[in-house]
Write a structure and sequence with these properties.
Distance between the termini: 33 Å
Strand content: over 45%
Number of domains: 1
Structural class: mainly beta
Number of strands: 5
CATH superfamily: Nucleic acid-binding proteins
Order of helices and strands: EEEEE
Shape: globular
CATH class: Mainly Beta
Helix content: under 10%
CATH topology: OB fold (Dihydrolipoamide Acetyltransferase, E2P)
Radius of gyration: 14 Å
CATH architecture: Beta Barrel
């Protein structure tokens, strides 16, 4: 995936929370927003399904996902790279 040819697509960073499907991972993306009335910084999160080719992303990994064409009913994101592997305790 070359970033110069795909400049209009969003890229997000999130944590893999599930890898139980084939070629699909569930990624939890968190963002911090300021509350309009209180002024307190709160965390908003959402889960998205992302396509992964070789099942290299596992649960707990920090990954970068990029928007792509719809692959299935719920999948419109693709894992571009793994930023950090999960530490096994």
């Amino acid at each position: 995936m070359n970033e110069t040819t795909e400049k209009n697509q969003r890229a997000l960073v999130g944590r893999v929370v599930s890898d139980k499907m084939q070629k699909t991972v569930t990624v939890l993306v968190e963002r911090k927003v300021k509350h309009p009335v209180i002024g307190k910084v709160i965390t908003r999160s959402r889960k998205v399904h992302a396509h992964v080719d070789n099942d290299e992303a596992g649960q707990g990994d920090l990954v970068e996902i990029q928007e792509c064409r719809p692959i299935s009913k719920t999948k419109a994101w693709r894992v571009t790279r793994i930023l950090e592997k999960a530490r096994i305790v």
